[in-house]
Structures are given as structure tokens and as C-alpha cells.
């Protein structure tokens, strides 16, 4: 679900950075100051664990495919939501820098889509289930529900962010119809792997599980019924949003029929797009930038491409000259 | 477990690249980080049909690749997973956006083709910029830059510790996977009966290791207020001119159709 930089407009990326920064600030504020010194090494090592664990493939019975661990939910069940969220930020930043899994500008969105939901919504579900003690069945139910729900929310956010950035012409409902079922299957597999690890942990060392020691003594802001209520409201809001979009956009089949019959082309005129388009137009340095001799932003003539080819070739040549000169001077180490 | 092998190799390779002595490696990390962020903002701000304008942003990573003594082709090949993801998203545009927007004389490209190309180019330029940052700076120096940008210490220390333990835990995961594969030859992945115990053991060892790390850090006088980031050992100059040149370059190529003007000369 890692988003690349090119999938986001700067305005949307900035908003997602702001949201994730606010959540990170809140998490740092809520970290237990007395235990902070002790928590930081745990967070560091657990981040590395999640990183390594996600590289291991788990065979899905009856299929030829494989899945991996859901990091946010597992971390939350071990170190709590605030430490888990900060750990996931570290994991996502390193994945972005070292392995090109997600972009640097898209980091805010990726943190929101994967860490925020995984840690904070995951924590709500975990606490609601474990309020009256931890059992094997509850762990399995919480892991499955947590992973499925958080992945669904993450996939929904990816869809919204991509469409708000104006990257794809795919209608909202069609995009959603692709994203949500795929992530439902992924969520179930990740939930199963996460449940297996947490069940093992409960048997081997139950004290490591979050709230295992003082489930009754800690304040419980939300019961299972409360969580289900919140989820119902979220579902209603989501359904409302979807219906709004559905009324504005025909689905893929209808669109294809419209195209075949020569009717009007589908336009992205939803309120969300309009809102983000306004932000983008404010942040764009030259919103009306058009190349000369063209009515469209594509630059309508081949002159630009010819110029580009000439200059790029010149720069590649210049690069080779620089490298040769550097090697001749022996100023650099052998090339990697 | 090819993925684990590749991951370990990638971490070592990037460490080696960051330790070299090239003009780009010698620049201060903060200047490089800020320059990359500026470059990304400008590159991503191009509209979806602005193909020719966007191509101008390619000069920057090409030149930096040369300055960093990196092969442009090899670097581009490393971004193929990004290109695949973007192609998957952008391919839909071919079917949904068929209006002609770019006339090349012999060929007329539809909006879908132009937006797909723009998306791919944006993605590859962004990938190149971030790759150049990490290949010439290293995570530890990036963490130093983050501290200079006043990113909270607890977050930076967590990132740094995660990075330092990644290789160790990747190797441990690799050993576990290899041991499992030797006991279950011909089986793809880990059987579901072993999911919990296999990863659980790794988790328990990681927690124990975290405790040892914490105790070792305490013995060395660590507390959360202390600076765990790498000290900046090199006297690094040239950061301000580099960042200034980057900003001017981005402004020029974002605001002026340079390629269009050059192309009109022919």
C-alpha cells in the first residue's frame, strides 16, 4: 500500500504531512515520560523486527500465494499505540529511503494510511476486546478485525488521496472496487499471521502483551459496544460519502457504455477534488503554465520534445565528461 | 529467502556508497535534504499533461548522478518497482482519457498517454532524487539533518536505532528462514502451523535484545536528552550555494518553458 511520490499532488502530500505530524506530536506528548528512556531502545529494536518480519513470506493454505505480518497492529498489541505509531514512522522512513517503498513526499500519506490506522484504530479494537482479560479467542478476533478494518481504511485513504491529486482518470467507484476487495483479502491474511504471533506471545510470555498486566486497573475509554458504535458511524459516513460520489460518477461499465455511445466524457467534479484542486492551484507556482503555441498543457508542439532531447543528450554527455575527469584525477573511490 | 538476502545487500551497498568521497558526498546533509524536498515539490507540482516542461527537471538528477559517480542506468533500474506501480495506476488513463493533447506531426498522443508518461517520469525523477540523497548521505547523516530541522529527539533516536538493528534482525530472520527451508525442502514460504512460533521466537529474541541494548546504553550514560545521532565528523561546506542553485534551477525550469524555446531554434 506504499504510495509513490508521483501519486500525490504537493497540496495533498502537504496536508497528509500535517495530519501525520499532528498525530506524531500527540504520540510523543503521550509517551510515558518516566519510561521514555526504556521505551526508545524497545521501539528501535521492534522497528527492526517489523522490518525483518515483513520480509518473511507465509504460505496461505490452499493457494499458491503468500502474505506477511501486519506491523501496526502487532506493535500496538506489544508496546501500545503511541510507541507503535512512532516506531512505524521510523520503519516507513527507512523503507522509503533504503528500498524505495513509498516516496519521501508521500511519507506523510503513507504514515497516515498504514501507521495511523494500524496503531490507533488497532488500539481501539485491541482495548475493547481485552477489557475483561486476554484470551486466545479474543486475540484472534481482535487481530483479524483490526487488520481487516485498518487495511480497509488505509486502502480507502489511498483511493481518496490519489483521486484528490488528480492522478488517475479511473472513476472513484471503479478505483474503490479494485482497492477494497484486494485489501480485504490481504487484511485477512495479515490478521491471521498477526494473530498467530500474538497467540504464541500470550502462551510464551503474556506479560509482554499491552494491558495484559493491568487490564482492569487502567482506564478504559471505550467498550466493545462503543467501538462497534464508532465503527457503525464510520460506516454510515463512508457509505454517505460513497453514495455522493456514486451519484456524481457512473461506474466503469456505465462509463464504457457512455464512451461507446459517444456521450459526454466523465469529469471529476466531486467536492473533494474541487477542494484539493483549489489547494493545488494556490500552491502551484504557475498554475496557468502552458507551453507556447499550444492550447493544452501538454505543450501541443513537438518543439519542446526536440529541445528536451537535445538538452538531455548534452547533459548526459556532460555527466560522462565530469565522471571521466573525476576518474582521471583519481579523486573518487571505485564506482559501485 | 531472496528478499532477505537482497535487503541485507542493499543496506550494505548504500552504506558503502554513502561512505565514499565524491563532491556530492562532501556536501552537508541538511542542504541535500532541503534541496531534495524542494526538488520534489517542484517536480510533483507539474500538471498531468506538462510533459515537455517536466523533462527539464531531469537535468538535476542526471548531473547529480555524474557528480556522485553513479551509473544513471543502474540507478534507474533500481526504481523499476516504482515504475511498475505507477504504470499500473497510469494505464487506466489510456482507456479513460482519449482526447488528443500532443501533436508530434506523425503521431498524435492522447491525454491518457501523455498523463501516463508524465506520471512515470515524475515517479522516476522523484525516485532518483531520493536515491541520490541516501546514496550520498546515509541514514545517520539524514538523522543529523532531521535533528537540525528540530524533529523530536525521541523520533530521530528511534529511526537511528531501527536502522542500526535492521541488518542484525534481517540476518536473524534469514537464519530462521534458512533453517526452516532446510527442514521443509520444496515448500514455498512458511506453513501456517509454524507462523506463530517462528515469528514469535524472533519477537521474543528482539525484545530481549532491546532490554540488553537499553542496559548497555544506560551503562554508557545514555538518557533520552542525549544526542544519539552520528557526530558530523567532516568539515562540510558548500551547502548554502548548493541549496540556492537547486532552488534557482527548479524555479527556472518550473516557470520558463526552456525546452520549448530551445526546440524553436531548430
Question: What would a concise description of this structure say?
Answer:
With 336 residues, chain A is mainly alpha-helical. Chain A is built from 11 helices and 2 strands; from the N terminus they run ααββααααααααα.
Describe this structure in words.
The complex is a heterodimer of chains A (336) and B (266). With 336 residues, chain A is mainly α. Chain A has a domain at 5-223: Arp2/3 complex 21 kDa subunit ARPC3. Chain A is built from 11 helices and 2 strands. Chain A has helices at residues 10-30, 36-53, 71-79, 81-99, 107-130, 136-164, 172-204, 224-248, 252-260, 271-283, 303-329; strands at residues 58-59, 66-67. A two-stranded antiparallel sheet of chain A has the order 1-2. Chain A is globular, with a radius of gyration of 24 Å. Chain A starts with 9 loop residues before the first helix and ends in a 7-residue tail after the last helix. The model of chain A is unreliable at 215-221, 238-261, 263-268, 283-301 and 332-336 (pLDDT under 50). Chain B has a domain at 21-146 and 235-251. With 266 residues, chain B is mainly α. Chain B has helices at residues 2-18, 29-44, 51-55, 59-67, 72-78, 80-96, 111-137, 139-148, 153-183, 195-219, 239-255, 258-264; strands at 100-103, 108-110. Chain B has 12 helices and 2 strands. The chains are: A mainly alpha (336), B mainly alpha (266). At the A-B interface, helix 1, helix 2, strand 1, helix 4 and helix 7 of A face helix 1, helix 2, helix 3, helix 4 and helix 6 of B.
Amino acid at each position: 500500500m506504499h504510495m509513490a511520490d508521483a501519486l500525490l499532488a504537493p497540496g495533498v502530500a502537504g496536508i497528509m504531512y500535517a495530519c501525520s505530524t499532528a498525530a506524531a506530536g500527540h504520540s510523543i506528548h503521550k509517551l510515558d515520560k518516566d519510561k521514555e528512556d526504556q521505551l526508545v531502545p524497545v521501539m528501535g529494536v521492534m522497528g527492526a523486527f517489523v522490518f525483518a518480519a515483513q520480509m518473511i513470506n507465509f504460505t496461505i493454505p490452499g493457494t499458491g500465494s503468500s502474505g506477511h505480518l501486519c506491523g501496526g497492529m502487532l506493535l500496538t498489541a506489544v508496546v501500545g499505540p503511541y510507541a507503535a505509531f512512532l516506531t512505524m514512522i521510523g520503519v516507513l522512513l527507512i523503507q522509503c529511503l533504503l528500498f524505495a517503498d513509498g516516496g519521501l513526499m508521500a511519507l506523510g500519506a503513507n504514515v497516515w494510511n498504514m501507521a495511523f490506522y494500524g496503531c490507533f484504530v488497532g488500539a481501539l479494537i485491541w482495548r475493547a476486546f481485552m477489557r475483561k482479560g486476554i484470551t486466545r479467542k479474543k486475540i484472534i478476533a481482535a487481530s483479524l478485525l483490526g487488520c481487516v478494518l485498518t487495511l480497509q481504511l488505509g486502502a480507502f485513504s489511498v483511493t481518496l488521496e490519489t483521486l484528490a491529486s488528480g492522478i488517475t482518470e479511473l472513476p472513484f467507484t471503479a478505483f474503490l472496487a479494485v482497492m477494497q476487495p484486494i485489501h480485504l483479502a490481504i487484511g485477512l491474511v495479515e490478521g491471521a499471521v498477526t494473530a498467530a504471533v500474538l497467540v504464541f506471545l500470550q502462551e510464551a510470555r503474556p506479560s509482554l502483551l499491552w494491558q495484559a498486566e493491568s487490564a482492569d486497573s487502567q482506564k478504559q475509554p471505550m467498550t466493545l459496544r462503543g467501538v462497534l458504535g464508532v465503527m457503525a458511524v464510520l460506516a454510515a459516513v463512508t457509505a454517505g460519502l460513497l453514495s455522493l460520489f456514486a451519484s456524481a460518477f457512473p461506474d466503469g461499465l456505465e462509463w464504457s457504455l457512455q464512451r461507446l455511445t459517444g456521450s459526454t466524457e466523465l469529469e471529476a467534479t466531486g467536492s473533494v477534488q474541487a477542494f484539493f484542486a483549489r489547494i493545488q492551484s494556490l500552491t502551484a507556482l504557475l498554475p496557468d503554465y502552458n507551453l507556447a503555441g499550444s492550447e493544452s498543457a501538454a505543450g501541443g508542439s513537438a518543439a519542446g520534445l526536440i529541445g528536451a532531447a537535445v538538452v538531455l543528450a548534452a547533459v548526459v554527455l556532460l555527466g560522462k565528461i565530469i565522471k571521466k575527469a573525476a576518474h582521471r584525477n583519481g579523486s573518487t573511490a571505485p564506482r559501485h | 529467502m531472496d528478499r532477505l538476502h537482497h535487503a541485507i545487500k542493499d543496506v550494505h551497498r548504500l552504506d558503502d556508497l554513502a561512505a565514499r568521497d565524491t563532491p556530492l558526498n562532501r556536501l552537508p546533509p541538511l542542504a541535500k535534504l532541503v534541496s531534495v524536498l524542494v526538488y520534489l515539490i517542484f517536480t510533483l507540482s507539474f500538471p498531468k499533461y506538462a510533459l515537455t516542461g517536466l523533462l527539464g527537471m531531469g537535468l538535476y538528477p542526471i548531473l547529480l548522478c555524474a557528480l556522485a559517480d553513479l551509473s544513471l542506468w543502474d540507478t534507474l533500474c533500481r526504481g523499476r518497482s516504482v515504475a511498475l506501480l505507477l504504470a499500473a495506476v497510469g494505464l487506466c488513463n489510456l482507456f479513460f482519457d482519449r482526447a488528443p493533447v500532443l501533436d508530434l506531426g506523425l503521431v498524435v498522443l492522447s491525454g491518457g498517454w501523455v498523463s501516463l508518461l508524465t506520471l512515470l517520469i515524475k515517479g522516476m525523477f522523484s525516485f532518483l532524487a531520493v536515491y541520490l540523497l541516501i546514496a550520498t548521505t546515509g541514514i545517520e547523516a539524514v538523522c543529523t539533518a532531521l535533528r537540525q530541522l528540530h524533529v523530536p529527539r525521541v523520533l530521530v533516536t528511534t529511526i537511528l536505532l531501527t536502522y542500526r538493528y535492521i541488518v542484525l534482525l534481517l540476518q536473524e530472520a534469514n537464519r530462521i528462514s534458512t533453517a526452516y527451508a532446510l527442514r521443509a525442502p520444496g515448500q514455498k514460504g512458511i506453513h501456517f502451523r509454524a507462523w506463530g512460533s517462528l515469528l514469535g521466537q524472533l519477537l521474543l529474541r528482539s525484545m530481549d535484545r532491546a532490554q540488553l541494548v537499553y542496559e548497555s546504553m544506560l551503562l554508557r550514560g545514555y538518557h533520552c536528552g542525549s544526542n544519539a545521532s552520528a557526530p558530523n565528523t567532516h568539515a562540510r561546506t558548500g551547502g548554502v550555494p548548493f541549496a540556492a542553485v537547486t532552488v534557482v534551477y527548479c524555479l527556472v525550469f518550473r516557470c520558463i518553458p526552456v525546452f520549448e524555446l530551445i526546440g524553436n531554434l531548430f
